[in-house]
Amino acid sequence: MAILRKINHILLLLLLLTICGIWYSTIYKVPAIPKDEDLPAGIEEEEEDVIPVLICAPPGRMGGTVAAINSIYSNTNANVLFYIIGLRNSLVHIKKWIQGTRLSDIRFKIIEFNPAVLKGKLRPDTAFPELLQPLNFVRFYLPLLIQEHEKVIYLDDDIIVLGDIQELYNTNISPGHVAAFSDDCDLPSIQDIAMKIGIQNTFMGFLDYRKKTIQKMGISPNTCSFNPGVFVANLTEWRQQQITKKLEKWMKKNVEENLYSSNVGGGVATPPMLIVFHDKYSSISPNWHIRHLGWSPDDHISQSVLKDAKLLHWNGRYKPWQISSSHGKLWQKWFIPDPTGKFQIRVT
After folding, report:
1. pTM listed for this prediction
2. What GO annotations for molecular function exist for this entry (predicted)?
């Protein structure tokens, strides 16, 4: 009898455990790991050979985004994954543009950027209102937008890539450095253009050294600046060094003290990056960022420079899709017309 009672107790215990197991799995059901083909849109497993490229698609500038993507895709055999960042009212437009053209074969994710994250961090700037557009600050929040990759390429929308993007991705980032930028003192030919047009290429052109907060940093005003329109970032190092938090700190300081927005450099995106990344960045090969195009309609880059150029950047106010600008035909080669008809090139 004692043996039967023990057996009954065991059977009862097993029954109770089974019932509890069913209840637990119902309440806290863990879904099965999907196969690759079952992955929902926007969710992908990390791949070792993928090259993540982040580029924004601002309203009114999407033609630049599309031309940049087309130039990258057409000049590489690498496994590129495009992260296209936009505002809510423009996401459907850029998706239709890509899917309705020959770019339908690219791999891409479209991500919405919420401007609310910038509340209280921007000081009004009537001299350069276009530089206060929310997507100008996407580069501050890379680790929040891309979490699957350690290394990522950030590109402005007014660029054309003529080389293999794999080469840019392979840029060496030294230990302890967060990113690799183009130093504004790299190519003599670029410096000549800057001097001719009057472009600032030192910290003095971006920061107000009359302010004690700037003076206390101990950075010489003659320190060479860098251009944050093209860079390669180590997101692991970015997180560890809390770069986003530091960038936001200097944005708020500018709101309180007007540290740089009224200076020659203009805008509020480049100065905090100059401060935070000072002594924390490596260098991109000069040919991978030939800039200062579009500063006037008739300024030209020499053929010797263009011959070796891997990337062209129209970072001046004369964009190749808006108005006649230097070397506009080089850009138009990569432009794909908008199938919806909303975006039109307005070159005069």
Report:
1. 0.84
2. UDP-glycosyltransferase activity
- In this structure, what DSSP letter does residue 127 have? S
57/64 Cα distance (integer angstroms) = 8
Q: In the chain, where are the structural domains located?
A: 49-183+227-332
Say what the alpha-carbon torsion angle 319, 325, 327, 328 is, to the nearest 10 degrees.
60
Reference 77, options 163, 1, 203, 197; nearest CA is 163
264/205 Cα distance (integer angstroms): 5
Distance between CA atoms of residues 286 and 292, nearest Å: 13
Cα distance between residue 292 and residue 241, in whole Å:
31
The label of the residue with tokens 């033609």 reads 63
Long-range CB contacts (within 8 A, 24+) of 233-236 = 233/142, 233/151, 233/152, 233/153, 233/154, 233/173, 233/178, 233/179, 233/180, 234/150, 234/151, 234/173, 234/177, 234/178, 234/179, 235/142, 235/143, 235/146, 235/149, 235/150, 235/151, 235/152, 236/150
Residue with tokens 């190749």: 320
Selected from 3.40.190.10, 3.30.110.40, 3.90.550.10, 3.90.420.10, the CATH number assigned to the domain covering 49-183+227-332 reads: 3.90.550.10
Contact 306, 283 (CB under 8 A): no
Reduced to 3 states, what is the DSSP secondary structure of residue 154? strand
Instruction: For residue 82, list its beta bridge partners.
Output: 53, 108
3-state secondary structure of 170: coil
